[in-house]
Amino acid sequence: MTPPVTILTGCAYTELLLLPSNSVDCIITSPPYWGLRDYGIEPSDWPACSYIPMPGLEPIHVPAETSCLGLETTLHAFLAHLTLIFTECRRVLKPTGSAWVNMGDGYASNAGGYDSNGSRGGSSESTRGAGTIAAVVKDKHRMSKLDGLKPKDLIGQPWRVAFALQASGWYLRQDNIWHKPNPMPESIRDRATKSHEYVFHLTKSERYYFDIEAWKEKASGNTHARRASNSFKMPDGWDTSKGGHGSFHKAGREKGKPASATAGVKNNSSMDAALSIMPTSANKRSVWTVSTVAYSEAHYATYPPKLITPPLLASTSAYGCCADCGAPWQREVIKTDTPDPSHKGSRFDSGKTAERPAYGIDTVQKGARFLKTVGDWHPTCTCEGGNLTRPVVLDIFGGSGTTAQVALENGRHAILIERGPHNVELIHKRLAPFLSAPVLHLA
Fold first, then answer.
1. If you ran DSSP here, which 8-state letter would residue 135 be given?
2. What CA–CA distance (Å, rounded) separates 141 from 136?
3. Which of its termini does the chain have fewer beta carbons within 10 Å around, N or C?
4. Number of helical H runs and strand E runs in the chain
5. Count of alpha carbons within 13 Å of 270, Cβ hemisphere only?
6. What is the DSSP string of 249-269?
7. Are residues 367 and 396 in the same domain?
8. Could you report the per-residue pLDDT of 28-40, keeping only the tens digit for each?
């Protein structure tokens, strides 16, 4: 029986080599950002390797070196090493699995080193904390020349990483924006303060497991509420009088101009058919507003649990996986013919929309909502054993154990890879309340 949490202590690349292929259901992680921070861990011996910076381009070769990930002497070496690591991640991920990679960015500094705000030795807004690598790399000016970066250039490392992984075989499915409503202040006067990072969604296969019901968010109760929440303000000169419909279409709606019979009208059978069963939930959008959360035990910032909970729930089966082949079980969603008595409907029978007959339209969408139920879970394989195991979530840069905590809180197992002994101690302390025994399994 596998333990709820397994910690592998060592370099991410070498520890991944120990894991069997097609053994984890989901990867959620935040790699070190290049040139931003020295974590005080022992360097690794990297082999000579290469990476393709973007599909269709020629590979870039980097020599063997001894360094910590994120503290390489060139950006190309960092990207090559990270691609090497994620090649192994792709091997251990199940064909149905997803990887979610959080990346922030930084700037080339005036000194030739790199920091987060484009100034010499400036403060960091990144989740990985403050600091530059001036003390680690002696020949700082050589760095910017080798990488082709000018002082104050935005490095663009999130997209460089995403394109390199795409070129290595990953499917790049989505660039989700982590919007931070409480960003770290920056003492800059010639650009905007950064308040976002990326969470890239990558998959091993074209078709993969995705629990859309776990991913969805609650929809607004009616059309008017959705419209009000948009806070849409009409431009000057638009006709917003009753029946004008100017709040949606400008064509034929400027004051003094006659409106055509159907201009701006949400007409017709296609609209009515689409709303025959009114939705009570909406697909999660690609901009996620999540406040940063302090973790007092760590000397660097960590991503908040709320940021990674939706990806974890959507990418792993809440019911479990086949113990024989590892295939996840999938839920069946059924739309019923039973109206939802608690819902007011679409409200298309009031307001301006109710006047559609005046424009020659003889139907008004009442839009009662219908109940939707989740049916039985069923296997996605043909195995006959019927035994189940819990999904496994992997974080190759375990940090303080946020990913494992979210996994345990939601009934999943976790594997963490962490190089720093101080972080391993934090993981033990953080996860003890979620485990039946205070001692974790160490491999």
1. T
2. 13
3. N
4. 10, 21
5. 3
6. --TTTBTTSPPPTTTT---HH
7. no
8. 999 998 887 777 7
